[in-house]
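Checklist before submission:
- one chain only
- standard amino acids only
- sequence pasted in full

Submission:
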Amino acid sequence: MDAARRKELMNAYKAKPVVGGVYCIFCSGSQRRWLRSSVDMEGSRSRFQFAVKTKSSPEPAMRQEWLAYGIESFSFECLEELEKGETQTAREFAEDVQALLDMWQEKLGEKTAE
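Returned file contents:
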């Protein structure tokens, strides 16, 4: 890869908007959901898809139900996304994403399942 192409790819990566948010992993077999937040929604979605492809539980807390109900009973649902502001620091963005999770927990009347 030449230097110009490499620089082009790096600039494209840096210009890509950072999107975080709140998501839910839902088990239709037990009707249980795990609310989570992430400052990298695409990464969280990819990790879930990787867990499905490799037939491994995305989190230790889900393992029992993952084995009992099977992979096909789990789904990844994006509840709300939030784009990082241009002047926002990583810490400020993480705090905003956490506040969004708190609002969703209140809205759904639950705390994060462990």
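Reviewer check: The chain has a mean pLDDT of 90.
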